[in-house]
């Protein structure tokens, strides 16, 4: 499928570049709807890879790239089921989204995240599966999950450990503070920082540059420099599910859902 328009995301192919746009208000929260549409996308990847060399993931929303998991949906799940059933439901969701993100991470395409504004939690984890992150100067990166009594669950910590030093990983995970685009570039998280509103344009220019080189060489190089930490990713799911059963998580989700703040995901 070369073109798709859904409620949470859409994609098309421009030349040999796949462009996947996020557009679910208020800030591209990743819940059941987005997961189903991402699964539809990765089911099309085998065919898309045959004629494409790059994938760009970006947001059409002014609010930012992605605020992360749909916490309201997660809270409803925790309240509407017995605890054991809720944990099993969460495990199923995590295993499905890991399959999606692992597939994008391992794609033969060169993948580029063009980010701006809020890039938090699961949104940060989505950006981390990409080979390159191009951020406009409004972008901020954060793992706020500890406020909920959780750890990131979409593969963020294993992928950060793969890409960055452990001191940075511990800082992001344990403090919950956010990094701006300049700091993100300084620590090696972001490859380019551009002006406000320029991330997608620069991502497209970068994709055009990537198309000048032999594709098979690029595929081999990517496999060599970007191993996927499958064992740590599986362990992350186990830890998340262990934590999800604790009362502190339900209380943290309750506070988030009942917040009157227009953007409760901001630290």
Short description:
With 267 residues, the chain is of the alpha/beta class. The chain has helices at 32-51, 71-80, 83-105, 121-128, 156-163, 166-175, 181-186, 199-210, 215-225, 230-244, 247-258, and strands at 4-5, 9-14, 17-22, 54-59, 64-66, 110-115, 118-120, 132-136, 140-142, 179-180, 192-194. The mean pLDDT is 92.
Describe what this molecule looks like in 3D.
The chain has 267 residues and is α/β, with parallel strands linked by helices. Helix content is 51%, strand content 17%. The longest helix has 23 residues. The model has no long low-confidence stretch (mean pLDDT 92). The protein has a 7-stranded mixed sheet with strand order 1-2-3-4-6-8-11, sandwiched between helices. It has a single domain, classed as Alpha-Beta Complex (2-enoyl-CoA Hydratase, Chain A, domain 1).
Task: Note the main attributes of this structure.
267 residues; alpha/beta; 2-enoyl-CoA Hydratase, Chain A, domain 1; seven-stranded mixed sheet; four-stranded mixed sheet; 11 helices; 51% helix; 17% strand
The coarse silhouette is globular
How far is the first residue's CA from the last residue's CA?
Answer: 39 Å
Mean pLDDT: 92
Q: How would a crystallographer describe the biggest sheet?
A: 7 strands, mixed
Order of helices and strands: EEEHEEHHEEHEEHHEHEHHHH
CATH architecture: Alpha-Beta Complex
Low-pLDDT stretches are none
What portion of the residues fall into strands of 2 or more residues?
A: 15-25%
CATH class assignment: Alpha Beta
What is the CATH topology classification name? Answer: 2-enoyl-CoA Hydratase, Chain A, domain 1
Give the total of domains: 1
Helix coverage percent: 40-55%
Secondary structure tally: strands? 11
Structural class: alpha/beta
Number of helices: 11
